[in-house]
Design goal:
The protein has nine helices and no strands. It has a domain of 132 residues: Tetracycline Repressor, domain 2 (Orthogonal Bundle), CATH 1.10.357.10. The protein has 197 residues and is an all-alpha fold. The radius of gyration is 19 Å and the shape is elongated.
């Protein structure tokens, strides 16, 4: 008979998210993960399939929260919701703003060295979801005659995703939640210029 878990999986995974977000994947060994999360090496291996499995679980939680709390309002909201989303990237206290940047951006950069297909898939899933949210919002705005119908919503959605990456990278580099503010201001100004009067 299996022993009952002595920890709450959701609480532990939340601590794992912040540990990897702050320190990165390669910087944390199993001993550091034990210390930061309260999990022992056996649980990391048996419950999560090792360090990479634990990291993927953290990425999944991070992605699901971003989809429900940040991306869904963009998908469901009007055109101006894109600017609200972008502004939240540099607003202290927002779930999308951190001096550590974005766990997904950090993972993508770090995975260039690690070379994990599974991590790459998790990163691509996140960016696909964000691009899709921008695209739906832009298409809805065109249909509602809020913005210029001659714009290319696919290209703008892709560009916005790249810009989001840049904002997060700047926040991480400067270790400030609002370091990417200048880029956000430029983006919001450009978006405003697309609105029909």
């Amino acid at each position: 008979m299996a022993r009952p878990k002595s920890y709450n999986v959701e609480e532990v995974v939340e601590r794992v998210v912040y540990a990897f977000w702050q320190h990165g994947y390669q910087a944390l060994g199993l001993r550091e993960l034990e210390h930061l999360t309260g999990l022992n090496q056996f649980a990391i291996r048996s419950e999560f399939g090792g360090k990479e499995g634990l990291y993927l679980t953290a990425l999944e939680l991070y992605t699901e929260r971003a989809i429900s709390h940040a991306m869904q309002p963009v998908r469901d909201g009007g055109f101006r919701q894109i600017s609200v989303f972008l502004t939240s990237l540099v607003t202290d206290g927002s779930m999308t703003s951190s001096k550590y940047g974005c766990l997904i951006v950090n993972t993508g950069i770090e995975n260039a060295r690690v070379g994990s297909k599974r991590l790459e898939e998790a990163v691509r899933r996140y960016w696909h979801e964000l691009e899709s949210s921008f695209l739906v919002c832009l298409q809805n705005a065109i249909a509602a005659e809020e913005i210029d119908p001659d714009i290319d919503p696919e290209q703008i959605a892709k560009g916005l995703v790249s810009a989001v990456m840049g904002v997060h990278a700047q926040n991480r580099l400067d270790q400030k939640t609002d370091a990417g503010m200048q880029l956000v201001d430029i983006l919001c100004s450009q978006l405003k210029s697309m609105e029909l009067s």
